[in-house]
Design a protein that fits this description.
Elements (H helix, E strand, L loop, with lengths): L2 E6 L2 E10 L3 E10 L5 E3 L7 H11 L7 E3 L11 H7 L4 E4 L1 H7 L11 E3 L5 E4 L2 E6 L11 E4 L4 E5 L18 H15 L8 H14 L3 E4 L5 E2 L3 H10 L11 H12 L4
Parallel strand pairs: 4-5, 5-6, 6-7, 11-12
Antiparallel strand pairs: 1-2, 2-3, 3-4, 8-9, 9-10, 10-11, 12-13
Bound molecules: fe (ii) ion (2 copies).
Amino acid sequence: MVNSYKAAADIDVLTSSFPIPGYGVVPINAFVIKGSEPVLVDTGAAVQSAEFMSALRSVIDPADLRWLWLTHTDFDHIGCLPQLLAENPRLKVITTFLGVGIMGLTTSPLPLDRVYLVNPGEKVTVGNRTLTAFKPPVFDNPCTTGFYDEKSGVLFSSDCFGAMLQSVPQNAADLSDADLRDGQVFWATIDSPWLAKVDRGMFARELDGVRKMAPKMVLSSHLPPAPGHMIDRLLASLEAAPGAQPFVGPNQAALEQMLQAMTAVPQ
Ligand SMILES: [Fe+2]
Ligand SMILES: [Fe+2]
């Protein structure tokens, strides 16, 4: 099920909750930025493409989209990409050289006349907005590029700041301190296991760079919209992540136990 709600007057959230058995749920968000040249940020999960398209149609006619900012090429971000490109010949995909390369290994390569390449620090003008690309401090795919929208003051952070939750509110401010912190740290250990190896001082300076951006809101692909006053809490969770227990998934014995429990016939 993909739902929609507003994060701001001109920004819609398209969201679904993906359950991870035994752990919780992870929200999967895409965003529609309305304006003279509307932008879609990511395209939902491949497994939910039909639901995503109908939720998208409820907030905008996909034919009106001019830009698709593809934060990266993971399956929870590219679900409707081929369909949107086929349906809307004007749509251009903002991505990176690596993003084009990775999509070139799929059955839906990006035609070069449909892409607009950005690197961190570069600006893209989309109608009455200027979007500045940035490399989030935490990411799970080398082609990841988030951006800052000067008009709204919103930071689109891709997977960074995501959280494993038990239930998903429409505002991150409605999460308790513990749920937010534990959920963010746990997600970070799953999504970016390399954090356990980072130089803490260098990582703290990266996080400071985000603090200095002072966003009015953070829109993560895997966290409900977070108002700007939460930025110190969001960054503190990430700062704690390198010291957290690294994630180890269930092994074959645990899987067999789970399957047995699922298929056990009640006596
Ligand atoms: Fe990802
Ligand atoms: Fe993701």
